[in-house]
Design a protein that fits this description.
Helices cover about 75% and strands about 0% of the residues. By secondary structure, it is an all-alpha fold. The protein has one domain. Helix 2 packs across helix 6. The longest helix has about 35 residues. The termini are far apart.
Length: about 120
């Protein structure tokens, strides 16, 4: 999508545990984020900012409770639209990453139990 891609932030991405990295890769966040930005008719600069905010959220640089206000202020949009976008980010990107992580960890635990 943009040069700010989560995986392209190699130093921070590499510092994540391997199961977190895999969960992010499996989520197809780039395509999903592209769909969200198109659905909300965001300009390219707003799309880049939104991806940066998502990366900051994933890397723990901003709290989830701050996300709506960050989206609103950084994208220069109204609160209603910020709430919608943030809800979609949560539902379509963050939750799948969490589910992927849970599945990876469950599979690892199952393998360990079998050994």
């Amino acid at each position: 999508m943009t040069a700010i891609s989560i995986e392209r932030n190699t130093e921070k991405f590499a510092s994540l545990p391997l199961d977190y990295q895999e969960a992010i890769r499996m989520s197809d966040y780039d395509n999903t984020l592209g769909t969200i930005t198109k659905n909300h008719k965001l300009h390219i600069d707003q799309s880049a900012i939104l991806e940066l905010l998502l990366a900051q959220l994933i890397f723990g640089e901003i709290e989830s409770r701050e996300m709506i206000s960050e989206v609103e202020s950084k994208l220069h949009i109204n609160n209603t639209e910020a709430v919608r976008i943030t809800a979609e980010l949560n539902e379509l990107i963050i939750k799948p990453i969490k589910e992927n992580l849970k599945n990876i960890q469950t599979n690892l635990q199952t393998k360990e139990d079998e050994e």
